[in-house]
Amino acid sequence: MSERPFLTVDCVVFHDNAVVLIRRAHEPFKGWYALPGGFVEVGETVEDACRRETRASGNKSKSGRSASETRPIKTVGLANSRTVSVPR
């Protein structure tokens, strides 16, 4: 098995004048709040991965509209980090 990088996306979704957050179901950081996101699949664009991840989040507003019914505005930036430091 060869090593390859894993590309992930975090999506900032504005819905009903608020930022959509999810509660992480799996480690690392299980139970913590986070932006919707996940791994980009092979052949998928980062924009398509954001759409898929926001649909998967299943967030609904009081109006009954899903967070996935929003349209992407733009890709804001990319970050590269080999280690993650989280203050406790």
Would you spell out the secondary-structure blueprint of this structure?
Elements: E1 8-10, E2 14-15, E3 18-19, E4 22-23, E5 33-34, E6 37-39, H1 46-57
Antiparallel strand pairs: 1-6, 2-3, 4-5
Keywords:
single chain; 88 residues; alpha+beta; two-stranded antiparallel sheet; two-stranded antiparallel ribbon; 6 strands; 14% helix; disordered C terminus
What would you note in describing this structure?
It contains one helix and six strands; from the N terminus they run E-E-E-E-E-E-H. It has one helix at residues 46-57, and strands spanning 8-10, 14-15, 18-19, 22-23, 33-34, 37-39. The protein has a domain at 8-60. It has 88 residues and is of the alpha+beta class. Helix content is 14%, strand content 16%. The N and C termini lie far apart (35 Å). The strands form three sheets. A two-stranded antiparallel sheet has the order 1-6. It has a two-stranded antiparallel ribbon with strand order 2-3. It has a two-stranded antiparallel sheet with strand order 4-5.
N to C succession of SSEs: EEEEEEH
Strand order of the largest sheet: 1-6
Kindly provide the radius of gyration, computed on alpha-carbon positions and rounded to a whole number of angstroms. Answer: 14 Å
Which spans of ≥5 residues are poorly predicted at pLDDT below 50? Answer: 84-88
- Total helix count? 1
**Proportion in helices:** 10-25%
In one word, what is the shape? globular
Mean pLDDT: 74
Q: Termini separation (Å)?
A: 35 Å
Largest sheet: 2 strands, antiparallel
Structural class: alpha+beta
How much strand content do the residues show? 15-25%
User: Care to count the β-strands?
Assistant: 6
